[in-house]
User: Fold this.
Amino acid sequence: MAYSLADLDAMTIDLAQRLPFEERDRLLDLIIADGRRESTQMQSYRVGLYCDYFEEDLVRMLKVKSVKVLSRGTTASGFDAVIVGDSDEEQYRATFRHVETTLKAAGTGFHRVVTMVVFLTNMDNWPLFNDVYREFITNPPCRAVIGTTGLAQKPLAIEIVECIAYKVAP
Assistant:
């Protein structure tokens, strides 16, 4: 049986935590989707880029045994300090792939990211960054993109400074 959020709300914590992992995992997607909010009904150029705020329903999260995952600051530089990509666009993709690897290792993915903070060294690339971002982000989190004059290694073009997602504990 596929449970709804109303069904989950009516359950005790003990009963909900006894649901099979797959069902709790599916319910977490519903909880996250329900928590993404807009502050107005007006449409703007930002559609698909971010939501205005996220309501973290801790009771629902507890019921499905949700765990918060925080990713470290990530750039296009690999563990060997070699920067992946000769262009800003290639660095953007490499950085998102590096974060994706971290999220997968933690048992989650971009679809469950609720907050993201990004530093860019060239804000003239705003449209290009958003194009690459849309390749990876299908469920828009709260997001901030900040221009900076430099990062840890001079040729770096991007750093995803903060990335918060959720997963379900077994």
